[in-house]
Amino acid sequence: MIEENFDAIVVGAGMSGNAAAYTMASHGLKVLQLERGEYPGSKNVQGAIMYANMLEKIIPDFRDDAPLERHLVEQRLWVMDDTSHTGIHYRSDDFNEAKPNRYTIIRAQFDKWFSRKVREAGATVLCETTVTELIRDAKDRVVGVRTDRAGGAIYADVVVLAEGVCGLLGTRAGLRQMPKPQTVALAVKEMHFLPEEVIEQRFGVKGDEGCVIEAVGTTSRSMAGLGFLYTNKESISLGIGCLVSDFAGMVESPYVLLDALKSHPSIRPLIAGSEVKEYSAHLIPEGGYKAIPQLFGDGWVVVGDAAQLNNAIHREGSNLAMTSGRIAAEAIIEVNSRNAPMTKRNLALYKAMLDKSFVVKDLKKYKDMPALLHTNSCNYFTTYPRLMSQAAQNFMRVDGTPKIEKEKATTAAFIKARSRWGLVSDAVRLALAWR
Ligand SMILES: Cc1cc2nc3c(=O)[nH]c(=O)nc-3n(C[C@H](O)[C@H](O)[C@H](O)COP(=O)(O)OP(=O)(O)OC[C@H]3O[C@@H](n4cnc5c(N)ncnc54)[C@H](O)[C@@H]3O)c2cc1C
Predict the structure, then answer these.
(1) Dist. CA 345 → ligand 1 center (Å)
(2) Global pTM?
(3) What is the distance between the alpha carbons of residues 66 and 46, in angstroms, rounded to a whole number?
(4) pLDDT grade, residue 435 (50/70/90)?
């Protein structure tokens, strides 16, 4: 094992760890990055939509060689009952711009590419190395790490904890608590392989254009959950996730929900004839602003999913991870440039910078959303999807019933299901959460 002192040790080679390691190494800091997986990305799961703006701020010319699947030109939002979907589709040729804004990626390939950039920037990257413990000095400052490799301790001025959602290292060290079941979702995902031309024909896209579908409704069995379908070049990523606390109270397993999504009449034709080559499951932090733990201390900072920086409402995580990794690195670079120690007081700069970014501003805006959806999940995920389907069908079937009677029937169905007061209170709660 390495017997050296580093300016920084980064634990984890996911989105946040790579952003932090790349930014520090490319500014001349001596960086060691440790990753428990066989290679960067081998342990990581994402849908996966990658947001270009946040990567551009780290590697401006990433489009030259990053493994990108499709750039997104169409987004479909579906509310489903058992046999139908009601949808909003947005598609624009403006998304066929020279530098597209959103891409689908496959993390195993993307993280390998990102890690190559980290090495090229000058960092030392060691895979198959699990950090088992943080080392503290007599004043309780974090001064290094121990790993599962022979050779003992490695020392650094600062340790960047980029270890993902479970954050076992940080929780074992008492820096934060384990995420609670009501603040994390469990998502399962399959990769369905199909020829490129079949994907293009089924989704009405050409070349590198891509389409995504996000769906809520009865497939999540009244739990607060989201199904997703993302088009890659020669595969479709299909998955669904719900809060762990909801799964705990249900007899259904995540696999049953995924099977229900796959066999839904609106999804089945889109994946027909595909070959499933990959299956994965992972947690997603969904606690919002209130779940963010202490972000810095003497000799350490925490970034990405480990810091619960994930916007569940907008299904954004990798961009918050990359941004928090970059900002933590910039704060460390600033402290290092002043030859100042990596104390809690000096590393508070990271939090001050993060507070000014979209990461914290967005999470603050939706701080109560998961609680809202969770409390009323049966209504939002079962009752309303069914009512919307009934209303749409009632409207579209031309059967000689006068329109006035159809309108009355639809209104009566909503009131019967939720009562006038229930409807008003659901609408007000939603509006307040979104304001
Ligand atoms: C099903 C699913 C779909 C998603 N879809 C999207 C999406 O479409 N768009 C989006 O932006 N976000 C999405 N996300 C969220 C996104 O994947 C995460 O926000 C992002 O991966 C967080 O990056 P990270 O670097 O913080 O953590 P990770 O990517 O989880 O990386 C953590 C790394 O640390 C390593 N590690 C952990 N412990 C140790 C240790 N002790 N020693 C050494 N290494 C360690 C792990 O092996 C891993 O490589 C999705 C998540 C899931 C689960």
Answers:
(1) 28
(2) 0.94
(3) 16
(4) low
